[in-house]
UniProtKB/TrEMBL annotation:
Subcellular location: Cytoplasm, Cytoskeleton
Matching InterPro entries: KIF11-like, Kinesin_motor_dom, Kinesin_motor_dom_sf, P-loop_NTPase
PANTHER family (alphabetical): KINESIN FAMILY MEMBER 11, KINESIN-LIKE PROTEIN KIF11
Organism in which the protein naturally occurs: Oryzias melastigma
Family recorded in the similarity comment: Belongs to the TRAFAC class myosin-kinesin ATPase superfamily. Kinesin family.
Name by which UniProt lists this protein: Kinesin-like protein KIF11
Keywords: ATP-binding, Cytoplasm, Cytoskeleton, Motor protein, Nucleotide-binding
Length: 85
């Protein structure tokens, strides 16, 4: 007995890709006072850069590329707009 989402549903999804989405929230007041920014989010390039060393240590930066990088409000607005088709 097959329920909705059984083997037939798996066949339909076989050709789909997994998308990874990252949300970068801004520092709160306490974090801003006690630290420097360690994460830079570039929505246009879909990249997140993590600084593991000091502020000027470019060798200790790691950049990751995602399918989508968004701010907190965009994270909720974009899926709602996509569902309006």
């Amino acid at each position: 007995m097959l329920a909705n989402g059984g083997v037939g549903a798996k066949r339909e999804e076989k050709g789909r890709n997994i998308q990874v989405v990252v949300r970068c929230r801004p520092f709160n007041t306490v974090e801003r006072k006690s630290s420097y920014g360690v994460i830079d989010c570039d929505q246009n390039r879909k990249e997140v850069t993590v600084k593991t060393g000091g502020l000027n240590d470019k060798a200790s930066r790691k950049t990751y590329t995602f399918d989508m990088v968004s701010s907190f409000p965009d994270l909720y607005r974009e899926p709602l707009e996509a569902g309006e088709d």
